[in-house]
Design a protein that fits this description.
heterotetramer; A mainly alpha; B mainly alpha; C alpha+beta; D mainly alpha; C: alpha+beta; Immunoglobulin-like; 5-stranded mixed sheet; 9 helices; 12 strands; about 15% strand; D: mainly alpha; about 0% strand; binds heme-A; binds copper (II) ion; Cyt_c_oxidase_su4_prok (chain B)
């Protein structure tokens, strides 16, 4: 079975089919990157529309109802359809390579996870075209959400349910991959920090998403089947939704933040040419943040009325997270200390990240002080806080990672000059947009405000904020230009363009589909660096060349996702007309049929034969 | 790979014997579970004091679950360290969730 | 690039100072100039935490700037390999322990004020107001007085006033930044908070829990008056008459129209027995604003009645029968003006309290 | 380990479910998944506990629940847990026939449980007009117990499809992990039920 023959010239149809059926983590990574990037642009356009509406008081660029759809979809899109998938893109592209694995533990599930995410994301956005998208905020607090007319919130519920299932699969997949598939010698305490953060983030996914799943089911039953979980008239209680949402929602922000920390740990260490300072403490801090992340969710609910005891407990627990996060900040600073710091685009993002995230974390601690949060809560101060941590932490990391791993993923390197231009526009625009929002909040501007009255002292701040947002837009356009230009030029680079330290740089860029011809023998932290310091070019193999076992491609994940997508419409529209139930049957039939096919058809993969590998080596 | 595919028949018989022992234990466990269930039901039917019954039946339920996990699902065997860790991670989150929803929802 | 970073820093420090010194926002709206007990408590914690944060930020930035300037790779050093340090126990202990101490500095006052603000010790002996939030307006019922009013809550200065808050539909939140922090108003659990204002005046209140289309327009006011004025006002409210007959000819016609079209939802007297369906219009002529957001004037009132959906999208009045499918009034503009004349006769006290007078003047609404 | 070894039923190691990398992955992954499932059910239990008094003037748990049925259901499910232990016992002894028999018994007991549950729901709906829409308590009850019931259905379908698919070819290293994790799933369903009968039914009639 010699699929090794270079597949340079493939017809478009064949390539498409290849991607629709692929179970290769590297291709799935590319699909996550494209889809997540697309949704980032969508969410960014929504943000620009938001800012444009707020450019002056009593503006009527968009209507109140449409504005509410914009913020809801902006938040939902950015968190679930942009940030998370982009993180999954890098986890897929990098984690198996960093631990010296040939693939993830469950390649089939990996592909299923992607397609579920994509169809869930599409489902969420279908609302735009069928009379209005979700409009109850990304947090969808009941009873506003359960009583919101139209189908927007139904699309939110089903879209998130479908893509959430995909995310959960992704989480389990990475956990098992990291537990079981590490190369010989790759002990836990030799794993690169990005892998560690991916591991902890996956564990958070595993424990946090089920709460959202249940919350969404309850909301679906309320909206579509007349249940009364959140309906005060039926004895229900809307606070339950808030708890379920935040039991998921708070760990979610660390699901985003931890891998971002991982990205920076790699970049900072690589470009200051030093091993990570306090590696053990970094690992420990990562785990501790993950653990504490489960005990603080009610800090989003200080004004709900839980009473001073609960508020105090959650306030203190929340503040505690500043300690492990501080450990990280200082360890990064001391990694830089005494290093030989090279400032190129990825490093520039990392250097921009440190002060920005510190600011965001500090305002986090400020809002964690319950009695102060009585003022901050639901104002632009909070908007400023979370954009500082999410954009300044997560988006910066994604952009840094994009420039850092682009060569590994595509074998060509993004233009450094354009990269720096992108950075400066985005960075300055970012601070212009969000720094001033702290003051807007304290000056009496609540969030989720379609408009604000004249003569309230809020005009200038909002104008500045809007200008900043458009500078970020300009930065993003430079990024797009960079990507197009680099792809057109397509100058190839070698396996290790950054003189880096971890395993993924020990193999060609882009890596062959089986990753490692021979599994590498890992002899320390930063394995490639270890070999380099001992004068070797690459890794020492841990096994002789032998047959490589590969999983088969499959079209079923796509089919399952389409099935659930179809069923989703059935669930939504049966509330108007029961004949839509047929769609549920058709959709679930397709999905379950595909699952059944999967379980009765043996899938034991195939082997790349030793001889082919050797032949390839000679070519 | 700890499990050799080809085993000597001696080894196989030894393992088989061991499993038989274990199976006996599991039947005993099962009997205990039934007994616990009976006690729980009986206590409720006897209409004892609420404040006494509720903690007791909860504890009995917890023990039963322990039996399921450690005997029926073999969590006591080696190679289950990580499964146990992750499972208890889930139980921890589960516990917080229930606590919150019971304590912090009505006032 | 070095001076870039420097510039940004000076710029941000400068803008910070500018903000603090000159523009703390609009008086009686901003949380930065507290004029009530709750706002003051929160403000203290805010200040303490900001001071701690400034310390933290200075430390982080000092190290950061030093490292970035000092250890940048210079020309000719490309091949130099720095020492690969593993870590440093002492340092690690230092940056674990110091943040813990700093956090304690914030945590202690936080907990103290959190308990303080939840204190219900004096509830029995204080004014109690039952607050009801609805899309997109507020109703206030004085529990001990059997009086209710809408949109504008009158309280005496320096008195603790307890608010018992419940929502009629979705969750809202009650926020008057200059007087006190916010509290959710939820449909199933009654929340209690107290407010206490230090100065007379009219304070801006906002809904801060996302509640639908006109969430951003669900403004209300707290009118802080002297004890004397408060007593007079309450008296006046008690004497508002459901059988009131209009004085001027046009208002009499207006009353007729009002009785045909509006009375099923709006009451014109402040009695607590009136069902809470739509804002209570007793004392209308002394309002600070129309619909909570428009300057008080006849034009604004007429505009509102003619097309309420234009001003507050999605508000409950759009179900009124006098409106056509487009939400436009089927009553002619002349008639609506008569209704306005009628409403502008309704008052509990002969003239507005001082706070309201001042407010109208400041906002430039003499007419 | 090649596909040849995987599908060769002659030699079975004593932990066939974990003998291949795929098996190990499934084994670990499934345990992790159960960790997530406990949060899922905790969310449902928490919701139920928050709402179990919210009868909105309708039927309450005291008025509804009878313990006889629940006792029978409990016995059925507990027993089925033991029978699936027997099935795994025989799997490890490489005795495919006996394994299938015990699995068959497990499925039968599970079906019995399911019938009683359906009968119970039906009873409440038609005798007491107690539905998901009656009150928040009704919503919470049907959702929690229904989710468990849904798991039972899924477990049964899983067992049955495994049994049908492998009936002819016997045990091998490819399907042993599948049988094993299906039985883990079944035990987990039992774990949940133990809490349901305690928290929902027993505490509900107290
Ligand atoms: C990536 C996402 C991310 C991250 C990392 C964080 C990090 C933190 N967040 Fe944030 N948060 C959000 C995303 C995030 N948050 C979002 C999206 C919301 C709003 C959701 C919504 O309502 O829509 C939110 C809202 C939010 C609230 C609710 C506010 C409200 O609605 O009223 C609170 C309250 O406690 C909070 C606290 C914190 C804290 C204490 C941290 C800490 O982890 C920060 C720790 C970091 C540091 C402190 C800096 C570095 C440390 C040092 C240099 C050491 C020394 C420091 C000290 C001694 C202070 N966040
Ligand atoms: C990952 C999360 C994330 C990210 C990255 C962002 C990014 C941005 N966000 Fe926001 N935001 C949230 C998560 C995020 N946000 C959440 C959760 C909420 C709360 C929602 C709620 O209340 O429910 C929120 C709310 C929110 C508000 C408050 C709305 C309100 O309360 O009324 C505002 C207002 O300024 C805002 C602005 C921005 C801006 C200007 C950006 C910028 O950084 C965006 C920068 C990106 C661009 C500018 C892209 C530009 C695109 C192009 C140039 C397109 C080119 C197109 C083609 C070639 C086709 N966001
Ligand atoms: Cu949080």
């Amino acid at each position: 079975m010699s699929t090794l023959v270079a597949t340079n010239k493939k017809s478009f149809g064949a390539t498409l089919w290849d991607y629709l059926t692929t179970v290769d983590h590297k291709k799935i990574a590319i699909m996550y990157l494209i889809a997540g990037g697309f949704f980032f642009l969508v969410g960014g356009l929504e943000a620009l529309a938001i800012r444009w509406q707020l450019v002056q008081p009593m503006n009527d660029f968009v209507s109140a109802g449409f504005y509410n759809e914009l913020i809801t979809m902006h938040g939902t899109t950015m968190i679930f359809l942009a940030a998370m998938p982009l993180i999954f893109a890098f986890m897929n592209a990098v984690v198996p390579l960093q631990i010296g694995a040939r693939d993830v533990a469950f390649p089939f599930l990996n592909s299923l996870g992607f397609w579920l995410f994509l169809f869930g994301g599409i489902m969420l956005n279908v609302g735009w075209f069928t009379g209005g998208a979700a409009d109850a905020g990304w947090t969808a607090y009941a009873p506003l959400s359960t009583t919101s007319p139209g189908e927007g919130v139904d699309y939110y519920v089903l879209g998130l349910q479908i893509s959430g299932a995909g995310t959960l699969m992704g989480g389990i997949n990475f956990l098992v991959t990291i537990v079981n598939m590490r190369a010989p010698g790759m002990t836990y305490m030799r794993m690169p920090l990005f892998t560690w953060t991916a591991f902890v983030a996956s564990a958070l996914i595993l424990f946090a998403f089920p709460a959202l799943t249940v919350g969404l089911f309850l909301m679906m039953f309320d909206r579509l089947f007349g249940a009364g979980f959140f309906e005060a008239n039926m004895g229900g209680n809307a606070v339950i939704w808030q708890h379920l949402f935040w039991i998921f929602g708070h760990p979610e922000v660390y699901i985003l933040a931890l891998p971002a920390f991982g990205v920076f740990s790699e970049i900072i260490s690589t470009f200051s040419k030093k091993r990570l300072f306090g590696y053990t403490a970094m690992v420990f801090a990562t785990v501790l943040i993950g653990f504490l992340g489960f005990m603080v969710w009610a800090h989003h609910m200080f004004t709900v009325g839980m009473g001073p005891a609960a508020n105090s407990i959650f306030a203190v627990a929340t503040m505690a997270i500043a300690v492990p996060t501080g450990i990280k900040i200082f360890n990064w600073l001391f990694t830089l200390w005494g290093g030989s710091i090279e400032i190129n685009t990825p490093m520039l993002w990392a250097l921009g990240f440190i002060p920005t995230f510190t600011l965001g974390g500090m305002t986090g601690v400020m809002v964690a002080a319950a009695s102060a949060d009585y003022q901050f809560h639901d104002t632009y101060f909070v908007v400023a806080h979370f954009h500082y941590v999410i954009v300044g932490g997560v988006v910066f990391a994604l952009l840094a990672g994009l420039h850092y791993w682009w060569p590994k993923m595509f074998g060509t390197i993004l233009d450094d000059k354009l990269g720096k231009i992108t950075f400066w526009f985005f960075f300055i625009g970012f601070h212009l947009t969000f720094f001033i929002q702290h003051f807007l909040g304290l000056m009496g501007m609540p969030r989720r405000y379609w408009t604000y009255l004249e003569n309230q002292g809020l005009d200038l701040g909002n104008l500045v904020s809007t200008i900043g947002a458009f500078l970020m837009g300009v930065g993003t356009i430079f990024l797009l230009i960079n990507i197009v230009k680099t792809t057109m030029k397509n100058e190839r680079v070698g396996g290790d363009p950054w003189d880096a330290r971890t395993l993924e740089w020990a193999i060609p860029s882009p890596p062959p589909f089986y990753n490692f011809k021979q599994l590498p023998l890992v002899r320390g932290l930063d394995p490639l660096w270890v070999e380099k310091t001992e004068g070797r070019k690459g890794m020492t193999p841990a096994e002789p060349i032998g047959d490589i076992h590969m999983p088969n491609n499959s079209f079923l994940p796509f089919v399952i996702s389409v099935g659930l997508f179809i069923a989703g419409f059935g669930f939504i529209y049966q509330k108007h007309d029961l004949s839509w139930l047929t769609l549920i049957f058709i959709g679930m039939g397709i999905a379950l049929g595909a699952m059944l096919t999967r379980s009765v058809k043996d899938d034991i993969g195939y082997h790349i034969h030793k001889e082919d590998l050797q032949k390839e080596a000679e070519e | 790979m700890t499990d050799k595919v080809s085993e000597t028949s001696q080894q196989f018989d030894y393992e088989k014997q061991k499993r038989k022992e274990e199976m006996k234990q599991q039947v005993i466990t099962f009997a205990l579970m039934i007994v616990f269930t009976l006690i729980s039901f009986a206590m409720v039917l006897a209409e004892l004091d609420r404040l006494f019954v509720i903690p007791v039946i909860l504890v009995l339920a917890a023990i039963q679950v322990g039996f399921q996990l450690y005997y029926f699902m073999h969590m006591s065997h080696k190679g289950h360290e990580l499964p146990a860790l992750m499972f208890y991670g889930g139980v921890f989150a589960a516990f917080l969730t229930i606590l919150a929803l019971v304590v912090l929802v009505w006032w | 690039m070095k001076d870039w970073m420097g510039k940004i820093r000076t710029l941000s420090i400068f803008s910070f100072l500018v903000m603090v010194l000159t523009a703390c926002g609009k008086d009686n709206l901003t949380a930065l100039v507290p004029k009530g007990y709750g706002a003051e408590q929160s403000f203290n914690v805010i200040i303490i935490s900001i001071l701690v944060m400034i310390v933290v930020f200075i430390v982080v930035m000092a190290i950061y700037i030093y490292v970035v300037l000092k250890f940048r790779r210079k020309k000719g050093q490309e091949d130099q390999i720095p020492v690969q340090t593993e870590g440093n126990k002492t340092l690690e202990v230092v940056w674990t322990v110091i943040p813990i101490l700093l956090l304690i500095i914030i945590a202690v006052p936080t907990i103290a004020s959190t308990y303080d603000l939840a204190d219900e010790g004096e509830k029995e002996d204080s004014i109690n107001v039952n607050v009801k939030g609805m899309q997109f307006w507020w109703n206030f019922e004085y529990a001990n007085e059997e009086v209710q009013t809408s949109q504008e809550l009158y309280i005496p200065v320096d008195q603790k006033v307890y608010l018992n808050m419940l929502s009629g539909d979705v969750i809202h939140a009650f926020w008057v930044p200059s007087i006190s922090g916010k509290m959710d108003v939820s449909p199933e659990n009654e929340n209690t908070m107290y407010i206490q204002a230090f100065e007379e005046g009219v304070y801006w209140g906002k809904c801060t829990e996302f509640c639908g289309d006109s969430h951003s327009l669900m403004d209300f006011k707290i009118v802080v008056v002297s004890q004397e004025e408060y007593d007079q006002w309450i008296d006046g409210m008690k004497n508002t008459d459901p059988e009131y007959t209009a004085q001027s000819a046009s208002a009499q016609e207006g009353q007729q129209l009002f009785n045909n079209n509006c009375i099923s939802c709006h009451a014109i007297d402040a009695s607590a027995t009136n069902p809470v369906i739509a804002p209570n219009l007793a004392d209308f002529d002394n309002r600070t604003m129309i619909a909570g957001i428009e300057h008080y004037s006849k034009e604004a009132l007429v505009d509102w009645i003619m097309n309420p959906g234009e001003i507050k999208p999605g508000n409950g009045m759009m179900d009124a029968e006098y409106l056509d499918d487009e939400g436009m009034s089927t009553i002619s503009e002349e008639d609506v003006e008569k209704i306005a004349d009628f409403l502008m006769e309704l008052k509990a006290t002969d003239e507005p309290v001082d706070s309201v007078k001042d407010f109208r003047e400041q906002e430039g609404q003499g007419n | 380990m090649s596909e040849h070894d995987v599908l060769n039923p002659k030699h079975m190691p004593h932990n066939p479910e974990k003998a291949t990398l795929e098996g190990k992955n499934k084994f670990i992954g499934f345990w992790f998944f159960l960790g997530g499932e406990s949060v899922l059910f905790a969310s449902l239990f928490g919701t139920y506990l928050a709402l179990n008094d919210s009868t909105n003037g309708g039927k309450s748990s005291e008025e509804l629940f009878g313990l006889e049925l629940v006792f029978i259901m409990t016995m059925l499910l507990l027993t089925s847990s033991l029978t699936s232990v027997y099935a795994m016992y025989h799997m490890k002894n490489n005795d495919f026939k006996k394994m299938m028999v015990w699995l068959g018994i497990t499925v039968a007991l599970g079906l019995g449980f399911l019938c009683f549950e359906l009968y119970e729901f039906n009873h409440y709906i038609h005798e007491y007009e107690f539905t998901m829409r009656s009150s928040a308590f009704g919503s919470a009850f049907y959702t929690l117990v229904g989710f468990h019931g849904g798991h039972v259905v899924f477990g049964l379908l899983w067992f049955i499809s495994l049994m049908v698919r492998n009936a002819k070819r016997g045990l091998n290293l490819y399907n042993a992990p599948k049988f094993y994790i299906a039985s883990l799933y079944w035990h987990f369903i039992d774990v949940v039920w133990v809490f349901i009968f305690t928290v929902v039914y027993l505490m509900g009639v107290l």
